[in-house]
Backbone:
Protein backbone atom coordinates (compact mmCIF):
# COMPACT_ATOMS: atom_id res chain seq x y z
CA UNK A 1 0.00 0.00 0.00
CA UNK A 2 1.14 3.55 -0.70
CA UNK A 3 1.65 5.95 2.17
CA UNK A 4 -1.09 8.15 0.72
CA UNK A 5 -3.52 5.25 1.08
CA UNK A 6 -2.51 4.72 4.69
CA UNK A 7 -3.28 8.33 5.46
CA UNK A 8 -6.50 8.68 3.46
CA UNK A 9 -8.02 5.32 2.50
CA UNK A 10 -11.01 4.04 4.50
CA UNK A 11 -9.85 2.31 7.66
CA UNK A 12 -12.08 -0.71 7.13
CA UNK A 13 -10.66 -1.34 3.69
CA UNK A 14 -7.10 -0.95 4.96
CA UNK A 15 -7.71 -3.40 7.81
CA UNK A 16 -8.96 -6.01 5.35
CA UNK A 17 -6.08 -5.44 2.93
CA UNK A 18 -3.37 -5.72 5.57
CA UNK A 19 -4.86 -8.23 8.00
CA UNK A 20 -6.16 -11.02 5.78
CA UNK A 21 -2.68 -12.14 4.55
CA UNK A 22 -1.41 -12.08 8.15
CA UNK A 23 -4.35 -14.13 9.39
CA UNK A 24 -3.88 -16.69 6.61
CA UNK A 25 -0.16 -17.10 7.32
CA UNK A 26 -0.69 -17.53 11.06
CA UNK A 27 -3.59 -19.96 10.59
CA UNK A 28 -1.40 -22.09 8.31
CA UNK A 29 1.14 -22.43 11.12
CA UNK A 30 -1.61 -23.47 13.54
CA UNK A 31 -3.16 -25.94 11.10
CA UNK A 32 0.26 -27.53 10.57
CA UNK A 33 0.30 -28.56 14.24
CA UNK A 34 -3.39 -29.45 14.41
CA UNK A 35 -3.37 -31.85 11.45
CA UNK A 36 -1.18 -34.41 13.24
CA UNK A 37 -3.29 -34.09 16.38
CA UNK A 38 -6.51 -34.88 14.48
CA UNK A 39 -5.30 -37.89 12.50
CA UNK A 40 -3.27 -39.37 15.36
CA UNK A 41 -6.25 -38.90 17.66
CA UNK A 42 -8.52 -40.75 15.23
CA UNK A 43 -5.95 -43.40 14.34
CA UNK A 44 -4.19 -43.98 17.66
CA UNK A 45 -6.40 -42.43 20.33
CA UNK A 46 -5.78 -40.70 23.64
CA UNK A 47 -2.26 -42.03 24.02
CA UNK A 48 -1.34 -40.70 20.58
CA UNK A 49 -2.67 -37.23 21.36
CA UNK A 50 -0.82 -37.21 24.65
CA UNK A 51 2.39 -38.27 22.88
CA UNK A 52 2.23 -35.35 20.42
CA UNK A 53 1.52 -33.00 23.31
CA UNK A 54 4.61 -34.17 25.20
CA UNK A 55 6.80 -33.51 22.15
CA UNK A 56 5.25 -30.12 21.42
CA UNK A 57 7.48 -28.16 23.89
CA UNK A 58 10.45 -29.29 21.80
CA UNK A 59 8.71 -27.89 18.70
CA UNK A 60 8.21 -24.59 20.54
CA UNK A 61 11.92 -24.51 21.39
CA UNK A 62 12.81 -25.06 17.73
CA UNK A 63 10.53 -22.17 16.78
CA UNK A 64 12.27 -20.04 19.42
CA UNK A 65 15.69 -20.83 17.94
CA UNK A 66 14.42 -20.17 14.42
CA UNK A 67 12.97 -16.84 15.60
CA UNK A 68 16.19 -15.88 17.37
CA UNK A 69 18.23 -16.25 14.17
CA UNK A 70 15.58 -15.77 11.46
CA UNK A 71 13.78 -12.73 12.89
CA UNK A 72 17.10 -11.24 13.98
CA UNK A 73 18.55 -11.69 10.50
CA UNK A 74 15.41 -10.23 8.92
CA UNK A 75 15.67 -7.14 11.13
CA UNK A 76 19.39 -6.81 10.40
CA UNK A 77 18.74 -7.15 6.66
CA UNK A 78 16.18 -4.35 6.79
CA UNK A 79 18.56 -2.23 8.85
CA UNK A 80 21.54 -2.65 6.50
CA UNK A 81 19.42 -2.12 3.39
CA UNK A 82 18.04 1.04 4.95
CA UNK A 83 21.62 2.23 5.42
CA UNK A 84 22.48 1.30 1.84
CA UNK A 85 25.08 -1.25 2.99
CA UNK A 86 24.44 -4.16 0.61
CA UNK A 87 27.75 -5.89 1.26
CA UNK A 88 27.02 -6.05 4.98
CA UNK A 89 23.48 -7.20 4.14
CA UNK A 90 24.85 -10.14 2.16
CA UNK A 91 27.29 -11.15 4.88
CA UNK A 92 24.60 -10.87 7.54
CA UNK A 93 22.12 -13.07 5.66
CA UNK A 94 24.77 -15.59 4.55
CA UNK A 95 26.24 -16.05 8.01
CA UNK A 96 22.72 -16.30 9.50
CA UNK A 97 21.85 -19.14 7.12
CA UNK A 98 25.06 -20.93 8.08
CA UNK A 99 24.25 -20.46 11.76
CA UNK A 100 20.71 -21.81 11.20
CA UNK A 101 22.18 -24.97 9.68
CA UNK A 102 24.78 -25.48 12.42
CA UNK A 103 22.41 -24.76 15.32
CA UNK A 104 19.66 -26.96 13.85
CA UNK A 105 22.06 -29.92 13.65
CA UNK A 106 23.24 -29.35 17.23
CA UNK A 107 19.65 -29.09 18.52
CA UNK A 108 18.68 -32.29 16.69
CA UNK A 109 21.71 -34.16 18.05
CA UNK A 110 21.18 -32.99 21.64
CA UNK A 111 17.48 -33.79 21.34
CA UNK A 112 18.24 -37.36 20.30
CA UNK A 113 20.73 -37.80 23.16
CA UNK A 114 18.52 -36.37 25.91
CA UNK A 115 15.06 -37.27 24.57
CA UNK A 116 14.22 -39.88 27.26
CA UNK A 117 14.98 -37.36 30.03
CA UNK A 118 13.20 -34.52 28.21
CA UNK A 119 10.02 -36.58 27.83
CA UNK A 120 9.54 -36.84 31.59
CA UNK A 121 10.58 -33.20 32.07
CA UNK A 122 7.81 -32.26 29.63
CA UNK A 123 5.21 -34.18 31.66
CA UNK A 124 5.22 -37.63 30.03
CA UNK A 125 3.57 -40.59 31.79
CA UNK A 126 4.62 -44.25 31.73
CA UNK A 127 1.70 -45.19 29.46
CA UNK A 128 2.54 -42.46 26.97
CA UNK A 129 6.33 -42.90 27.06
CA UNK A 130 6.66 -45.50 24.30
CA UNK A 131 4.46 -43.60 21.83
CA UNK A 132 6.12 -40.28 22.70
CA UNK A 133 9.58 -41.77 22.22
CA UNK A 134 8.64 -43.23 18.81
CA UNK A 135 7.03 -39.97 17.71
CA UNK A 136 9.87 -37.84 19.08
CA UNK A 137 12.71 -39.84 17.50
CA UNK A 138 11.26 -39.21 14.03
CA UNK A 139 10.28 -35.59 14.68
CA UNK A 140 13.87 -34.88 15.77
CA UNK A 141 15.09 -36.06 12.36
CA UNK A 142 13.13 -33.19 10.86
CA UNK A 143 14.44 -30.57 13.29
CA UNK A 144 17.03 -29.21 10.81
CA UNK A 145 14.28 -28.81 8.19
CA UNK A 146 11.96 -27.19 10.74
CA UNK A 147 14.45 -24.64 12.08
CA UNK A 148 15.97 -23.74 8.70
CA UNK A 149 12.72 -23.22 6.77
CA UNK A 150 11.12 -21.34 9.67
CA UNK A 151 14.14 -19.04 10.05
CA UNK A 152 14.51 -18.62 6.30
CA UNK A 153 10.84 -17.69 5.87
CA UNK A 154 11.42 -14.60 8.05
CA UNK A 155 14.42 -13.58 5.95
CA UNK A 156 12.44 -14.11 2.74
CA UNK A 157 9.65 -11.85 4.03
CA UNK A 158 12.23 -9.15 4.84
CA UNK A 159 13.54 -9.48 1.28
CA UNK A 160 10.12 -8.36 0.06
CA UNK A 161 8.62 -11.74 -0.86
CA UNK A 162 5.88 -12.45 1.73
CA UNK A 163 3.85 -14.43 -0.81
CA UNK A 164 6.72 -16.83 -1.50
CA UNK A 165 7.27 -17.19 2.25
CA UNK A 166 3.62 -18.09 2.70
CA UNK A 167 3.78 -20.59 -0.18
CA UNK A 168 6.66 -22.38 1.57
CA UNK A 169 4.41 -22.96 4.58
CA UNK A 170 1.29 -23.81 2.58
CA UNK A 171 3.01 -26.47 0.46
CA UNK A 172 4.43 -28.20 3.54
CA UNK A 173 1.07 -28.13 5.31
CA UNK A 174 -0.71 -29.63 2.27
CA UNK A 175 1.88 -32.42 1.98
CA UNK A 176 1.41 -33.18 5.67
CA UNK A 177 -2.37 -33.19 5.28
CA UNK A 178 -2.20 -35.66 2.38
CA UNK A 179 0.34 -38.05 3.90
CA UNK A 180 -1.11 -38.21 7.43
CA UNK A 181 -4.13 -40.42 6.60
CA UNK A 182 -2.05 -42.52 4.19
CA UNK A 183 0.66 -43.34 6.73
CA UNK A 184 -1.62 -43.64 9.77
CA UNK A 185 -4.63 -45.50 8.30
CA UNK A 186 -3.42 -47.17 5.10
CA UNK A 187 0.06 -48.18 6.29
CA UNK A 188 -1.01 -48.55 9.96
CA UNK A 189 2.10 -46.73 11.19
CA UNK A 190 0.35 -44.97 14.10
CA UNK A 191 2.25 -42.09 15.69
CA UNK A 192 5.28 -42.91 13.54
CA UNK A 193 3.15 -42.27 10.45
CA UNK A 194 2.09 -38.87 11.76
CA UNK A 195 5.70 -37.98 12.49
CA UNK A 196 6.86 -39.14 9.03
CA UNK A 197 4.16 -37.05 7.33
CA UNK A 198 5.26 -34.05 9.37
CA UNK A 199 8.97 -34.22 8.55
CA UNK A 200 8.30 -34.88 4.86
CA UNK A 201 6.13 -31.75 4.75
CA UNK A 202 8.89 -29.84 6.56
CA UNK A 203 11.48 -31.15 4.11
CA UNK A 204 9.43 -29.86 1.17
CA UNK A 205 9.11 -26.42 2.84
CA UNK A 206 12.86 -26.52 3.47
CA UNK A 207 13.57 -27.20 -0.23
CA UNK A 208 11.37 -24.28 -1.26
CA UNK A 209 13.33 -21.92 1.00
CA UNK A 210 16.66 -23.27 -0.33
CA UNK A 211 15.51 -22.64 -3.91
CA UNK A 212 15.05 -19.00 -2.93
CA UNK A 213 18.76 -18.50 -2.27
CA UNK A 214 19.27 -17.59 -5.95
CA UNK A 215 16.14 -15.45 -6.08
CA UNK A 216 16.89 -12.76 -3.50
CA UNK A 217 15.60 -9.40 -4.71
CA UNK A 218 17.69 -7.03 -2.62
CA UNK A 219 21.00 -8.89 -2.46
CA UNK A 220 23.00 -11.46 -4.46
CA UNK A 221 24.55 -14.04 -2.14
CA UNK A 222 28.07 -15.31 -2.84
CA UNK A 223 29.97 -18.28 -1.40
CA UNK A 224 32.14 -16.13 0.85
CA UNK A 225 29.03 -14.55 2.40
CA UNK A 226 28.22 -17.82 4.17
CA UNK A 227 31.22 -17.57 6.49
CA UNK A 228 30.38 -16.83 10.12
CA UNK A 229 31.29 -13.25 11.03
CA UNK A 230 30.72 -10.72 13.78
CA UNK A 231 27.38 -9.62 12.30
CA UNK A 232 25.96 -12.76 13.95
CA UNK A 233 26.15 -11.03 17.35
CA UNK A 234 23.97 -8.21 16.08
CA UNK A 235 21.57 -10.70 14.48
CA UNK A 236 21.15 -12.56 17.77
CA UNK A 237 20.59 -9.33 19.71
CA UNK A 238 17.84 -8.32 17.28
CA UNK A 239 16.10 -11.70 17.53
CA UNK A 240 16.31 -11.97 21.32
CA UNK A 241 12.84 -10.55 22.04
CA UNK A 242 11.24 -13.13 19.73
CA UNK A 243 13.22 -15.90 21.43
CA UNK A 244 12.15 -14.78 24.92
CA UNK A 245 8.49 -14.68 23.89
CA UNK A 246 8.64 -18.28 22.62
CA UNK A 247 10.47 -19.42 25.75
CA UNK A 248 7.67 -18.03 27.95
CA UNK A 249 5.19 -20.06 25.89
CA UNK A 250 7.43 -23.09 26.37
CA UNK A 251 7.48 -22.52 30.14
CA UNK A 252 3.68 -22.29 30.22
CA UNK A 253 3.29 -25.51 28.21
CA UNK A 254 5.72 -27.48 30.38
CA UNK A 255 4.11 -26.29 33.62
CA UNK A 256 0.61 -27.23 32.42
CA UNK A 257 1.76 -30.61 31.11
CA UNK A 258 3.22 -31.46 34.50
CA UNK A 259 0.13 -30.24 36.36
CA UNK A 260 -2.06 -32.44 34.14
CA UNK A 261 0.21 -35.41 34.79
CA UNK A 262 0.79 -34.97 38.54
CA UNK A 263 -2.70 -33.93 39.65
CA UNK A 264 -4.43 -36.05 37.02
CA UNK A 265 -2.90 -39.14 38.62
CA UNK A 266 -4.92 -38.56 41.80
CA UNK A 267 -8.17 -37.92 39.89
CA UNK A 268 -10.58 -40.39 38.33
CA UNK A 269 -9.33 -39.35 34.87
CA UNK A 270 -5.78 -40.59 35.45
CA UNK A 271 -2.72 -38.85 34.00
CA UNK A 272 -3.04 -39.73 30.32
CA UNK A 273 -6.48 -38.22 29.64
CA UNK A 274 -5.77 -34.72 31.10
CA UNK A 275 -2.40 -34.63 29.32
CA UNK A 276 -4.07 -35.49 26.03
CA UNK A 277 -6.94 -33.03 26.58
CA UNK A 278 -4.61 -30.13 27.34
CA UNK A 279 -2.76 -30.71 24.07
CA UNK A 280 -6.00 -30.85 22.06
CA UNK A 281 -7.55 -27.73 23.64
CA UNK A 282 -4.29 -25.81 23.21
CA UNK A 283 -4.22 -26.61 19.50
CA UNK A 284 -7.88 -25.64 19.06
CA UNK A 285 -7.31 -22.39 20.94
CA UNK A 286 -4.36 -21.61 18.66
CA UNK A 287 -6.86 -21.02 15.83
CA UNK A 288 -8.44 -18.24 17.88
CA UNK A 289 -5.08 -16.78 18.88
CA UNK A 290 -3.81 -16.83 15.28
CA UNK A 291 -6.93 -15.06 14.00
CA UNK A 292 -6.74 -12.21 16.53
CA UNK A 293 -2.97 -11.76 16.30
CA UNK A 294 -3.13 -11.77 12.49
CA UNK A 295 -5.62 -8.90 12.48
CA UNK A 296 -3.65 -6.94 15.10
CA UNK A 297 -0.33 -7.40 13.27
CA UNK A 298 -2.01 -6.35 10.02
CA UNK A 299 -3.15 -3.12 11.69
CA UNK A 300 0.38 -2.18 12.79
CA UNK A 301 1.42 -0.21 9.67
CA UNK A 302 -1.91 1.68 9.66
CA UNK A 303 -1.57 2.69 13.30
CA UNK A 304 2.16 3.43 13.11
CA UNK A 305 1.93 5.59 9.99
CA UNK A 306 -1.00 7.71 11.14
CA UNK A 307 0.42 8.05 14.66
CA UNK A 308 3.74 9.29 13.31
CA UNK A 309 1.99 11.62 10.83
CA UNK A 310 -0.16 13.10 13.60
CA UNK A 311 -3.47 11.75 12.23
CA UNK A 312 -4.71 10.90 15.73
CA UNK A 313 -8.38 10.69 14.78
CA UNK A 314 -7.54 8.00 12.23
CA UNK A 315 -5.51 6.19 14.88
CA UNK A 316 -8.52 6.27 17.22
CA UNK A 317 -10.81 5.02 14.47
CA UNK A 318 -8.41 2.18 13.67
CA UNK A 319 -8.16 1.19 17.33
CA UNK A 320 -11.94 1.17 17.75
CA UNK A 321 -12.53 -0.99 14.68
CA UNK A 322 -9.63 -3.28 15.52
CA UNK A 323 -10.90 -3.88 19.06
CA UNK A 324 -14.47 -4.47 17.84
CA UNK A 325 -13.39 -6.98 15.18
CA UNK A 326 -11.02 -8.77 17.59
CA UNK A 327 -13.72 -8.98 20.26
CA UNK A 328 -16.30 -10.32 17.78
CA UNK A 329 -13.85 -13.03 16.70
CA UNK A 330 -13.21 -13.78 20.36
CA UNK A 331 -16.94 -13.93 21.04
CA UNK A 332 -17.45 -16.37 18.17
CA UNK A 333 -14.78 -18.73 19.49
CA UNK A 334 -16.02 -18.19 23.06
CA UNK A 335 -19.51 -19.36 22.07
CA UNK A 336 -18.07 -22.39 20.26
CA UNK A 337 -15.82 -23.34 23.20
CA UNK A 338 -18.48 -22.94 25.91
CA UNK A 339 -21.73 -23.97 24.22
CA UNK A 340 -20.63 -26.40 21.48
CA UNK A 341 -17.30 -27.88 22.64
CA UNK A 342 -18.19 -31.47 21.76
CA UNK A 343 -18.54 -30.57 18.05
CA UNK A 344 -14.88 -29.52 17.88
CA UNK A 345 -13.37 -31.89 20.44
CA UNK A 346 -14.90 -35.03 18.90
CA UNK A 347 -12.77 -34.46 15.78
CA UNK A 348 -9.69 -35.42 17.78
CA UNK A 349 -10.74 -38.83 19.12
CA UNK A 350 -12.52 -41.94 17.86
CA UNK A 351 -15.56 -43.33 19.69
CA UNK A 352 -13.98 -46.77 19.96
CA UNK A 353 -11.17 -45.41 22.11
CA UNK A 354 -11.35 -46.99 25.62
CA UNK A 355 -10.91 -43.54 27.17
CA UNK A 356 -13.51 -41.86 24.95
CA UNK A 357 -16.05 -41.04 27.68
CA UNK A 358 -13.47 -39.81 30.17
CA UNK A 359 -11.70 -37.82 27.44
CA UNK A 360 -14.91 -36.13 26.26
CA UNK A 361 -16.10 -35.41 29.80
CA UNK A 362 -12.85 -33.79 30.89
CA UNK A 363 -12.36 -32.00 27.57
CA UNK A 364 -15.86 -30.48 27.72
CA UNK A 365 -15.32 -29.40 31.33
CA UNK A 366 -11.92 -28.01 30.43
CA UNK A 367 -13.30 -26.09 27.47
CA UNK A 368 -16.30 -24.66 29.32
CA UNK A 369 -14.32 -23.61 32.42
CA UNK A 370 -10.85 -22.78 31.16
CA UNK A 371 -12.14 -20.86 28.13
CA UNK A 372 -15.17 -19.36 29.90
CA UNK A 373 -14.16 -15.75 29.19
CA UNK A 374 -11.50 -16.34 26.52
CA UNK A 375 -13.02 -13.56 24.39
CA UNK A 376 -11.43 -11.11 26.85
CA UNK A 377 -8.03 -12.41 25.67
CA UNK A 378 -8.67 -10.54 22.43
CA UNK A 379 -8.04 -7.27 24.29
CA UNK A 380 -4.77 -8.56 25.78
CA UNK A 381 -3.40 -9.88 22.48
CA UNK A 382 -4.52 -6.85 20.47
CA UNK A 383 -3.35 -4.29 23.05
CA UNK A 384 0.13 -5.80 23.16
CA UNK A 385 0.56 -5.36 19.40
CA UNK A 386 -1.11 -1.92 19.35
CA UNK A 387 0.95 -0.48 22.21
CA UNK A 388 4.12 -1.70 20.51
CA UNK A 389 2.96 0.08 17.33
CA UNK A 390 2.72 3.28 19.38
CA UNK A 391 6.37 2.80 20.35
CA UNK A 392 5.84 1.80 24.01
CA UNK A 393 8.01 -1.35 24.12
CA UNK A 394 8.10 -1.72 27.91
CA UNK A 395 4.33 -1.43 28.26
CA UNK A 396 3.81 -3.85 25.37
CA UNK A 397 6.13 -6.37 27.04
CA UNK A 398 4.25 -5.96 30.33
CA UNK A 399 0.95 -6.66 28.60
CA UNK A 400 2.37 -9.76 26.87
CA UNK A 401 3.73 -11.19 30.13
CA UNK A 402 0.74 -10.30 32.33
CA UNK A 403 -1.51 -13.27 31.59
CA UNK A 404 0.89 -16.17 31.07
CA UNK A 405 3.80 -15.40 33.39
CA UNK A 406 2.56 -12.93 36.00
CA UNK A 407 -0.97 -14.31 36.51
CA UNK A 408 -1.69 -17.71 35.00
CA UNK A 409 1.32 -19.84 35.98
CA UNK A 410 1.34 -18.72 39.65
CA UNK A 411 -2.48 -19.13 39.89
CA UNK A 412 -2.38 -22.57 38.24
CA UNK A 413 0.31 -23.81 40.62
CA UNK A 414 -1.42 -22.36 43.69
CA UNK A 415 -4.98 -23.49 42.93
CA UNK A 416 -3.98 -26.99 41.79
CA UNK A 417 -2.08 -27.40 45.06
CA UNK A 418 -5.26 -26.74 47.08
CA UNK A 419 -8.03 -27.93 44.72
CA UNK A 420 -6.28 -30.49 42.56
CA UNK A 421 -6.58 -30.97 38.80
CA UNK A 422 -9.51 -28.59 38.35
CA UNK A 423 -7.58 -25.84 40.16
CA UNK A 424 -5.41 -25.31 37.08
CA UNK A 425 -8.55 -25.12 34.94
CA UNK A 426 -10.19 -22.47 37.14
CA UNK A 427 -6.96 -20.47 36.95
CA UNK A 428 -7.74 -19.80 33.28
CA UNK A 429 -10.84 -17.57 33.57
CA UNK A 430 -9.49 -15.87 36.72
CA UNK A 431 -6.26 -14.96 34.92
CA UNK A 432 -8.21 -13.86 31.83
CA UNK A 433 -10.46 -11.52 33.83
CA UNK A 434 -7.65 -10.01 35.94
CA UNK A 435 -5.50 -9.55 32.85
CA UNK A 436 -8.44 -7.85 31.11
CA UNK A 437 -8.66 -5.29 33.93
CA UNK A 438 -4.93 -4.56 33.75
CA UNK A 439 -4.96 -4.30 29.95
CA UNK A 440 -8.01 -2.01 29.86
CA UNK A 441 -6.26 0.36 32.27
CA UNK A 442 -3.02 0.39 30.23
CA UNK A 443 -4.74 0.60 26.86
CA UNK A 444 -7.16 3.23 28.15
CA UNK A 445 -4.33 5.48 29.29
CA UNK A 446 -2.70 5.23 25.86
CA UNK A 447 -6.00 5.89 24.07
CA UNK A 448 -6.73 8.97 26.19
CA UNK A 449 -3.25 10.32 25.53
CA UNK A 450 -4.06 10.68 21.84
CA UNK A 451 -4.92 14.24 20.90
CA UNK A 452 -5.99 16.07 17.81
CA UNK A 453 -2.73 18.01 17.56
CA UNK A 454 -0.78 17.22 14.42
CA UNK A 455 2.98 16.88 14.11
CA UNK A 456 5.09 18.15 11.21
CA UNK A 457 4.01 16.33 8.04
CA UNK A 458 6.55 17.27 5.43
CA UNK A 459 10.35 17.33 5.50
CA UNK A 460 10.31 20.44 3.35
CA UNK A 461 8.35 22.36 6.01
CA UNK A 462 11.32 22.52 8.40
CA UNK A 463 13.78 23.08 5.59
CA UNK A 464 11.71 26.02 4.34
CA UNK A 465 11.69 27.67 7.77
CA UNK A 466 15.49 27.68 7.81
CA UNK A 467 16.15 28.48 4.15
CA UNK A 468 18.62 31.32 3.47
CA UNK A 469 21.35 31.95 0.92
CA UNK A 470 24.14 29.67 2.18
CA UNK A 471 27.72 30.91 2.56
CA UNK A 472 29.18 27.44 2.14
CA UNK A 473 28.60 24.45 -0.13
CA UNK A 474 29.51 21.97 2.57
CA UNK A 475 27.44 19.60 4.67
CA UNK A 476 28.86 19.60 8.19
CA UNK A 477 28.43 16.86 10.79
CA UNK A 478 29.25 17.54 14.42
CA UNK A 479 29.86 14.75 16.92
CA UNK A 480 30.48 15.96 20.43
CA UNK A 481 31.12 14.94 23.99
CA UNK A 482 28.29 15.60 26.39
CA UNK A 483 28.87 18.99 28.01
CA UNK A 484 31.36 20.23 25.39
CA UNK A 485 28.98 22.83 23.97
CA UNK A 486 28.68 21.08 20.61
CA UNK A 487 25.01 21.89 20.08
CA UNK A 488 25.51 25.58 20.82
CA UNK A 489 28.55 25.72 18.52
CA UNK A 490 26.49 24.10 15.76
CA UNK A 491 23.72 26.68 16.13
CA UNK A 492 26.15 29.65 16.12
CA UNK A 493 28.09 28.28 13.15
CA UNK A 494 24.86 27.73 11.22
CA UNK A 495 23.87 31.38 11.74
CA UNK A 496 27.29 32.56 10.56
CA UNK A 497 27.11 30.40 7.43
CA UNK A 498 23.39 31.02 6.78
CA UNK A 499 22.60 27.31 6.67
CA UNK A 500 20.16 25.26 8.75
CA UNK A 501 21.28 23.28 11.80
CA UNK A 502 19.43 20.04 12.54
CA UNK A 503 19.38 18.50 15.98
CA UNK A 504 16.01 18.10 17.69
CA UNK A 505 14.33 18.80 14.34
CA UNK A 506 15.56 15.37 13.21
CA UNK A 507 13.31 13.82 15.87
CA UNK A 508 10.16 15.22 14.24
CA UNK A 509 11.27 14.22 10.76
CA UNK A 510 12.21 10.69 11.91
CA UNK A 511 8.78 10.44 13.53
CA UNK A 512 7.18 10.75 10.11
CA UNK A 513 9.50 8.17 8.60
CA UNK A 514 9.24 5.59 11.38
CA UNK A 515 5.67 5.97 12.63
CA UNK A 516 6.85 6.51 16.22
CA UNK A 517 5.97 9.61 18.20
CA UNK A 518 8.57 12.39 18.69
CA UNK A 519 8.31 11.82 22.46
CA UNK A 520 9.14 8.12 22.10
CA UNK A 521 12.09 8.79 19.79
CA UNK A 522 13.45 11.38 22.20
CA UNK A 523 13.13 8.93 25.09
CA UNK A 524 15.00 6.22 23.16
CA UNK A 525 17.77 8.68 22.28
CA UNK A 526 18.18 9.51 25.96
CA UNK A 527 18.40 5.84 27.05
CA UNK A 528 20.54 4.01 24.52
CA UNK A 529 21.35 1.13 26.84
CA UNK A 530 19.69 -1.68 24.85
CA UNK A 531 18.58 -2.26 21.29
CA UNK A 532 15.30 -3.58 19.97
CA UNK A 533 13.79 -3.78 16.51
CA UNK A 534 12.07 -0.42 17.17
CA UNK A 535 15.44 1.24 17.81
CA UNK A 536 16.67 0.08 14.42
CA UNK A 537 13.54 1.44 12.75
CA UNK A 538 14.30 4.79 14.40
CA UNK A 539 17.93 4.73 13.26
CA UNK A 540 16.89 3.86 9.69
CA UNK A 541 14.35 6.71 9.72
CA UNK A 542 16.89 9.21 11.08
CA UNK A 543 19.49 8.07 8.55
CA UNK A 544 16.98 8.46 5.72
CA UNK A 545 16.13 11.98 6.89
CA UNK A 546 19.84 12.90 7.19
CA UNK A 547 20.47 11.75 3.62
CA UNK A 548 17.50 13.75 2.38
CA UNK A 549 18.25 17.05 4.12
CA UNK A 550 21.96 16.79 3.25
CA UNK A 551 21.12 17.42 -0.40
CA UNK A 552 21.54 21.08 0.57
CA UNK A 553 24.25 22.65 2.76
CA UNK A 554 23.44 22.15 6.45
CA UNK A 555 24.83 21.19 9.86
CA UNK A 556 23.81 17.85 11.40
CA UNK A 557 24.35 17.30 15.11
CA UNK A 558 25.14 13.73 16.27
CA UNK A 559 23.18 10.63 15.25
CA UNK A 560 26.17 9.04 13.46
CA UNK A 561 25.83 11.70 10.74
CA UNK A 562 29.47 11.39 9.65
CA UNK A 563 29.05 7.62 9.13
CA UNK A 564 25.63 7.87 7.45
CA UNK A 565 27.06 10.38 4.93
CA UNK A 566 30.58 8.89 4.68
CA UNK A 567 30.38 8.55 0.87
CA UNK A 568 29.03 12.05 0.32
CA UNK A 569 31.15 14.67 -1.43
CA UNK A 570 31.64 18.08 0.22
CA UNK A 571 31.26 16.58 3.66
CA UNK A 572 33.10 18.11 6.61
CA UNK A 573 33.26 15.94 9.76
CA UNK A 574 33.93 17.58 13.12
CA UNK A 575 34.40 16.14 16.61
CA UNK A 576 34.26 18.47 19.63
CA UNK A 577 35.51 17.60 23.09
CA UNK A 578 36.47 19.42 26.24
CA UNK A 579 38.25 19.01 29.57
CA UNK A 580 36.46 17.31 32.45
CA UNK A 581 36.34 20.55 34.46
CA UNK A 582 34.81 22.50 31.58
CA UNK A 583 32.20 19.82 30.92
CA UNK A 584 31.22 19.69 34.59
CA UNK A 585 30.84 23.47 34.72
CA UNK A 586 28.72 23.47 31.56
CA UNK A 587 26.28 20.70 32.52
CA UNK A 588 25.95 22.21 36.00
CA UNK A 589 25.20 25.69 34.64
CA UNK A 590 23.09 24.94 31.57
CA UNK A 591 21.58 21.50 32.21
CA UNK A 592 21.04 22.02 35.97
CA UNK A 593 22.81 18.79 36.90
CA UNK A 594 23.95 18.77 40.56
CA UNK A 595 27.71 19.26 40.70
CA UNK A 596 28.26 16.09 42.75
CA UNK A 597 26.44 14.10 40.04
CA UNK A 598 27.84 15.91 37.00
CA UNK A 599 30.88 13.68 36.39
CA UNK A 600 28.79 10.50 36.64
CA UNK A 601 26.15 11.87 34.23
CA UNK A 602 28.78 13.02 31.71
CA UNK A 603 30.57 9.66 31.72
CA UNK A 604 27.29 7.77 31.33
CA UNK A 605 26.12 9.93 28.43
CA UNK A 606 29.43 9.60 26.61
CA UNK A 607 29.51 5.82 27.14
CA UNK A 608 26.03 5.57 25.63
CA UNK A 609 27.04 7.72 22.64
CA UNK A 610 30.15 5.61 22.07
CA UNK A 611 28.18 2.38 22.36
CA UNK A 612 25.47 3.64 20.02
CA UNK A 613 28.04 4.77 17.43
CA UNK A 614 29.94 1.48 17.50
CA UNK A 615 26.74 -0.58 17.35
CA UNK A 616 25.59 1.06 14.11
CA UNK A 617 28.94 1.78 12.45
CA UNK A 618 31.37 -0.84 13.83
CA UNK A 619 33.77 2.04 14.47
CA UNK A 620 35.00 3.92 17.53
CA UNK A 621 33.13 7.13 18.27
CA UNK A 622 36.15 9.29 19.20
CA UNK A 623 38.64 7.86 16.70
CA UNK A 624 40.32 10.74 14.84
CA UNK A 625 40.28 8.66 11.61
CA UNK A 626 36.51 9.13 11.47
CA UNK A 627 36.75 12.94 11.39
CA UNK A 628 38.39 15.75 9.44
CA UNK A 629 39.09 17.85 12.52
CA UNK A 630 38.89 17.45 16.29
CA UNK A 631 38.86 20.51 18.58
CA UNK A 632 39.17 20.83 22.34
CA UNK A 633 36.59 23.56 22.84
CA UNK A 634 37.77 24.97 26.17
CA UNK A 635 41.19 25.86 24.69
CA UNK A 636 39.68 28.57 22.47
CA UNK A 637 36.23 28.93 23.99
CA UNK A 638 32.86 28.71 22.22
CA UNK A 639 33.03 31.91 20.14
CA UNK A 640 36.65 31.46 19.01
CA UNK A 641 35.94 27.82 18.08
CA UNK A 642 33.05 29.02 15.89
CA UNK A 643 35.30 31.63 14.26
CA UNK A 644 37.99 29.03 13.58
CA UNK A 645 35.55 26.62 11.99
CA UNK A 646 33.98 29.40 9.92
CA UNK A 647 37.40 30.46 8.61
CA UNK A 648 38.37 26.89 7.73
CA UNK A 649 35.10 26.24 5.90
CA UNK A 650 35.14 29.49 3.95
CA UNK A 651 38.74 29.07 2.81
CA UNK A 652 38.55 25.34 2.01
CA UNK A 653 38.15 24.57 -1.69
CA UNK A 654 35.44 22.17 -2.87
Residues:
Amino acid sequence: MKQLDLGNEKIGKLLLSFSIPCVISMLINSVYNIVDQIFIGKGVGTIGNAATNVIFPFVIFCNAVAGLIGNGSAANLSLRLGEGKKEESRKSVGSSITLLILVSLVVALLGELFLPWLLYAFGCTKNVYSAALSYGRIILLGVPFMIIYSGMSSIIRADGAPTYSMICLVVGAIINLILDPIFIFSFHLGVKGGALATIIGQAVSFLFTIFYLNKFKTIALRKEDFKLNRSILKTLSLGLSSFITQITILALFVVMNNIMTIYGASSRFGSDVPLSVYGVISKINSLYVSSVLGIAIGAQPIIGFNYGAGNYERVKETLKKLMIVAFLIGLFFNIMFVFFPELVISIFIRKSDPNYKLFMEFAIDYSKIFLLVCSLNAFEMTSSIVIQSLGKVKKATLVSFTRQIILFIPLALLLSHFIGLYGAIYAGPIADFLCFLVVIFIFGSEYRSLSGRKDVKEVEWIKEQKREVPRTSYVITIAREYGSGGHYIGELLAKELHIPCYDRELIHLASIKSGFTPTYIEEKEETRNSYYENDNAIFIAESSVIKEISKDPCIIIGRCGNAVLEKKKNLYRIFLYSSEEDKINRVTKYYHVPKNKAKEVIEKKNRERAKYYQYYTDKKWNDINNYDIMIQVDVLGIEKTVELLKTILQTKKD
